[in-house]
Structures
1.
Amino acid sequence: MKVIILGLGNFGAALAIRMTQLGHEVIGVDNDAHRVEEIKEKVTSTICMDARELHDLKYLPLDDADAVLVAIGEDFGASVLITAQLKQLGVSRLIARSMSGLHRTVLEAIGVSDIFSPELEMAESFALKMELKNVNNVYHISQDYKIVESAVPKLMVNKPLSGIDFAASYDLNLIAVKRSEKVRNLIGMASTEQRLHSKLGPEFILLEGDVLVLAGSVDALKHLYAVL
C-alpha cells in the first residue's frame, strides 16, 4: 500500500513510522524541516513543502497513492484548506483528522466521508476504562458501541458458556476468549503465551485469568459490571 501522510506532528510522525514498519510505502510531508529531518530515516521517503500551496501539492504522486491522509490537527485552517484542495484534485481515498465537532462538520461540508478523531476516541476509551475497572482495553466502534477486553468476572469462573447467555442476559456479544497457556518449543523449553479462542461452543469453560472480548453498547457494558 502506498500512503501519503501530510502533517508530521506527534501523531502523523508516529503513524508514518508504524505504517512503514508494517511494510507500506509511506511518503511523509511537512513544512517543518526539523520534523522531516527527524523521521527521514524511519519512513520510505519524506518531503519538506508547504502543502497549503496548490501548485506544490500537485507535485505529489497523488494518482499513485492508495490513500492520502491529512494528519494535521492543531492548525484548523491548514487542515481544511489542504483537505479541500485534495478534494479538488480528485484524490480517490482521502482521510482527514478532526480535532473537534466543528472541525468534523467543516470537513464533512467539503465532502470528506472518512474522518477520524484519535484524541477524542482515546479520551472516550480511557474514560470508559477508568469507569469499568475490570476492562483492560477499549476499542471504539461508534459513539455508543465498543469492543472491550475484560477480566472474566469471578461469578463466571469455572462455568461453561452453556450456563451464561451473554446476549439474552446482558445484551452483549462474546467474540472470543484470551487465555494464557503453557507451550513448549522445539527443544522442549516451556513458556506461557496468550492464545485467542474464537470458536466457542456451549461446553467451553471460563477459567480464572481468562480475558473476555465483548462487544456491545456502553450501557450494556456498564450493566454487566454493575450486577457482577
2.
Amino acid sequence: MASASTPTPTPTGNERIARRFPEEVASEGNIGLIDEICAEDVLDHSPLGEVRGRDDLKAQISGLRESFSDFSATVEDAITEGDTVAMRVTLRGTHDGTFMDIEPTGKTVEVGNMLFTRIEDGMIAERWVQPDMLGMLTQLGAVEPPEP
C-alpha cells in the first residue's frame, strides 16, 4: 500500500520573517536585507560574540562570508511559539579565509546549528545562534577530535 506524502507547509508570519535571515542574508549574501528585516537595535548572541545593531550584525555576517565564501545555511526544521521561532539549520562552507585566527585550510565544513529568533513588530529583534563549534573546529583541524 502506497503512503501519501504530506506536503511541507508554507511558512507564514513570524517563521517567514525568521527564515529570511539564514536563507537570504547568510546563504545568498544579501547583507543589505538586514535593514529590512531586523530592528535597528537587533541583538545577536553567538559564539563569535554578542553584537547589537544592524551595522555590527552586517559586519559579523560579512566577516563570516569572507571566511567561508560559499557559506550556506539550510533550514531543516522550524517551530514557532508566540514571538519566537526555533530553527534547526545546517551550516556549510569552504574555509578559504581567516576564521577565529585560523588561517585558511581549504577544508569544507558541515555542522548543525540551533537558531532561535525573536520577532517584535514584524522585525527580527533578537537572535541566539548555537552552532556546533567543536565539530567545526575539529573539521578545520584546529582541535583534536574527542575520544569516543
3.
Amino acid sequence: MIAASSPDGTNKNVPHQKFSEKDKSKHFGYDKQSGPAVWAKMFHLCGGHSQSPVKLDTTITVTYHHPRIMWWNYSLKPQAMTISNNGHTVLLRAKWARKEDTPYHWSAPSSEEYVFEQLHFHWGQDDHSGSEHMLNNERFALEMHVVHYRRDLGSVENAGLYDSGIRVIGVFFRISEAEHHNVGLQQIVQLLQTIRMANSTVVLLEPFPLSRLVPEFSNLYLTYNGSLTTPPCAETVSWVIRKEPLTISRQQVEEFRNLMSEDGQTIKHNWRPVQPLNGRTVIQIR
C-alpha cells in the first residue's frame, strides 16, 4: 500500500526502540493532570513529529485511484468474543475457531497482509466532538478504530516496533437526525451497562462477525503514516480512514458517555487533539 512505505526512505523492517516496562506501567487519562497535554512528559514518543490524529483536508491531499483494499474473513462468525471497559475505552476482542479464519485485509498490489487484533472507540461530551481525526474541519460524535498488525511480524506487540507494522482502520459515526439506531453497533451498546465499571468484561453468548461493525470498502478512503493515538504513541501506524461516516443515535452515544474510568469518573470524552502533520502527505484513494 502507498501509505505503508516509510516517508523518509528508511528501511521499514528496522525495528524501533522497544517501550520500557516503566512506560507501560504509567497511568494516563484525558484530564488536565494526566491528559494529552502532558503525555509527552511521561511518554517521550508522544512528543514525536509523526503523531496522530491529524486534520484531514480532502482539498489538499494527493489523489490516486489505487490501491484497493481486499477484505477476507470479516463475515466469519468468531468462536468467542469479549467486550471490555479498560478504564479508557470500550474494547472488543474475538477469537476464531482456526487461526487462519481470523479476518485480515491487504491492498493490491502489495502482498502485506494485516490481521485483526481488536477494535475500540473514541467519543466526546457532545454530538460534535468525539472523533479523534477531523475531516474537512468536521468532528464526529464517535470514531471506531479497528486495529490490525502485519502478519509477517507475528503479533501486535512486535508489529508496534516497525514502520507500518500496525494498520488502523478509522470509521466515523455521525449523529442520525432521525434518531435511528446503528443496528450493528447496538449489539455492543446494549451490553455497555454490564461493563460500566472500569476493568470489567462481558463474554458474548452469541458472537457476531466483524462485518456487522466494520464496513468493507475498496476505495474512498484517506491514508497517511502516523502513530497510536494513546500512549506510548508509537509512530509505527499506517492509518486508513473511511471518508463516508456511518450514523449513530444520540441514545447510543450516551451509553458510551456513562462508562466509568479507573478514577471513578464518567468517561465523557477520550479523544486526543489533532497533531501537526509536519510535512507528512495524506493520500486520498478514489
4.
Amino acid sequence: MQSMNIHFWAFHGLFMGNYGREHPSTKVTVIDLFNNMESIKPLWKQVHGVGKVIQRIMKKSPHGVHLLCFSQGGLICRGVLSVLPNHNVHAFIALASPLAGQYGVSQVMKSYYPSSATDSVYFLCYNKFMQKRISLCNFWNDPHQQVKYLKHNNFLPLLNVASFLLCGY
C-alpha cells in the first residue's frame, strides 16, 4: 500500500480565535476565518466563506483532506459538506459540536446569558431578523418550541431535513 500524505484542516468554535499546533509528521492547517466576535455572524455566511477556502484547499490536496472542527465549527464544516457538490474529505470529525442544536447555556455563553434566560431564548432567535444576524440563533433548538423552530430557523432544520421528516412525507 502506498503511503499518502493526507492534510488535516481545523476550524474553531464560537468566540474563539485561530489556534493550532502541528504534529511533526502531520500537516495541519487551521482555517483563519470568523475569529472571536466574527464567529457570531450567521452560519450560512460562515459556511459560504469557509466553503470557498476549503474548495481551494481540496484542489491543492489531491489525496484528500480530513476536517477536524470544534464546537460551532462542526456545524459550519457540516454545512460546507452539505452544499459542496464534490469533495475529497475522507473524514469529518466534529468535537463538542451541537450538531442536533443547542438548548441550554454552555460555559462559553454563561457570561453572556444568565441560565434563567434559556426558556426565553426562542423569543430572541426564532424570527427572520435574528436568523440573519446571530449564529447562536441558527442552531438554537428549543424542545418546547419545535413548531417555531421548524418555521423560523433557517439553518439547522435544513441540514437535518427535520421539517421534511416531521411533515410526514
